[in-house]
Amino acid sequence: MRGARTILLWALVLALGAFALQWLEYRFVTRAFSWQIYVGLIGAAFAAGGVWVGFKLAARARPETFQRNDAALAALGLTGQEVRVLERLAAGRSNKEIARDLGLSPNTVKTHVANLYAKLEVGRRTQAIGKARELALIP
Description:
It is a single chain. The chain is mainly alpha-helical. The chain has seven helices and no strands. It has two domains: 19-59; 70-134, Arc Repressor Mutant, subunit A, CATH 1.10.10.10. The protein has helices spanning 2-32, 35-58, 70-76, 80-90, 95-102, 106-120, 125-134. It is elongated.
C-alpha cells in the first residue's frame, strides 16, 4: 500500500511538471506567432478532417466481381438488348450514342428505354439506373 502511494505521489508530481512545461511552452508560442497563423492552422486542421471524413463516408465496399442477378432478369422479362441499353444508360450515354454503339436507330433505343421504364416501374433514367443497381442487373 505504501509503495502504491509513493508511485501515485510521484506520478502526480511528474504530471504537474509536464503540465507546467506545456503551459510555459504555450505561453511562449502564443507570443511568438500572430493570431492569424493559429486561425490558419485550425482552418487547415478542420479542412483535412473534413476531407478525411468525406473519404470515409463516400467509400463503398464493392465486390471484386459483379454477379448479375439472373433471377431478377428473368422475373422482369428483360431482353439482352434491353440489358445492353440499360448498361449504356448507366454509363451516361444519350439515346443517339447508344444507337451508334449498338447499331440501332434512335427510335428503337427510345422503345427499349420505354420498355425498361415499364418493366422496372420507374419514370426517369436515374430511377431506372438506381433500381437496376439495387436489383444487381448492372454493376
